[in-house]
């Protein structure tokens, strides 16, 4: 049973991979957008920060779920 708990926790932590990929793509696109329209930098930065925060929250939720699985299902 403890093997299944470890596998479940590992799968829950994998949400960090998706968040990292999403933040990387968003940052790249924002950099391209700022290069094309420098006058829109403040609007682009606001949207980028909001998107990165939401992506990072997803990774944190995965980490919390992994901790809950490990601590409460033993």
From TrEMBL:
<dbReference type="InterPro" id="IPR020537">
    <property type="entry name" value="ATP_synth_F0_csu_DDCD_BS"/>
</dbReference>
<keyword id="KW-0812">Transmembrane</keyword>
<keyword id="KW-0472">Membrane</keyword>
<comment type="function">
    <text>Key component of the F(0) channel; it plays a direct role in translocation across the membrane. A homomeric c-ring of between 10-14 subunits forms the central stalk rotor element with the F(1) delta and epsilon subunits.</text>
</comment>
<keyword id="KW-0446">Lipid-binding</keyword>
<keyword id="KW-1003">Cell membrane</keyword>
<feature type="domain" description="V-ATPase proteolipid subunit C-like">
    <location>
        <begin position="7"/>
        <end position="69"/>
    </location>
</feature>
<comment type="similarity">
    <text>Belongs to the ATPase C chain family.</text>
</comment>
<feature type="transmembrane region" description="Helical">
    <location>
        <begin position="6"/>
        <end position="27"/>
    </location>
</feature>
<dbReference type="Pfam" id="PF00137">
    <property type="entry name" value="ATP-synt_C"/>
</dbReference>
<feature type="transmembrane region" description="Helical">
    <location>
        <begin position="48"/>
        <end position="73"/>
    </location>
</feature>
<protein>
    <recommendedName>
        <fullName>ATP synthase subunit c</fullName>
    </recommendedName>
</protein>
<comment type="function">
    <text>F(1)F(0) ATP synthase produces ATP from ADP in the presence of a proton or sodium gradient. F-type ATPases consist of two structural domains, F(1) containing the extramembraneous catalytic core and F(0) containing the membrane proton channel, linked together by a central stalk and a peripheral stalk. During catalysis, ATP synthesis in the catalytic domain of F(1) is coupled via a rotary mechanism of the central stalk subunits to proton translocation.</text>
</comment>
<keyword id="KW-0375">Hydrogen ion transport</keyword>
<dbReference type="InterPro" id="IPR035921">
    <property type="entry name" value="F/V-ATP_Csub_sf"/>
</dbReference>
<dbReference type="InterPro" id="IPR002379">
    <property type="entry name" value="ATPase_proteolipid_c-like_dom"/>
</dbReference>
<dbReference type="InterPro" id="IPR038662">
    <property type="entry name" value="ATP_synth_F0_csu_sf"/>
</dbReference>
<keyword id="KW-0813">Transport</keyword>
<keyword id="KW-0066">ATP synthesis</keyword>
<keyword id="KW-1133">Transmembrane helix</keyword>
<dbReference type="InterPro" id="IPR000454">
    <property type="entry name" value="ATP_synth_F0_csu"/>
</dbReference>
<keyword id="KW-0138">CF(0)</keyword>
<dbReference type="InterPro" id="IPR005953">
    <property type="entry name" value="ATP_synth_csu_bac/chlpt"/>
</dbReference>
<keyword id="KW-0406">Ion transport</keyword>
<feature type="site" description="Reversibly protonated during proton transport">
    <location>
        <position position="56"/>
    </location>
</feature>
């Amino acid at each position: 049973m403890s093997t299944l708990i470890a596998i479940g926790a590992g799968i829950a932590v994998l949400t960090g991979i998706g968040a990292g990929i999403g933040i990387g793509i968003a940052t790249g696109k924002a950099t391209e957008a700022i290069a094309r329209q420098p006058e829109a930098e403040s609007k682009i930065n606001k949207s980028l920060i909001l998107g990165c925060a939401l992506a990072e929250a997803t990774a944190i939720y995965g980490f919390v779920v992994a901790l809950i699985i490990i601590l409460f299902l033993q």
